[in-house]
Amino acid sequence: MAKKTVATLQSNSKRLTKAVKMVKSPKSGAYTFVEAVMAPEAVNDWLSKK
Question: Is the entire prediction scored with pTM above 0.70?
Answer without folding.
Answer: no
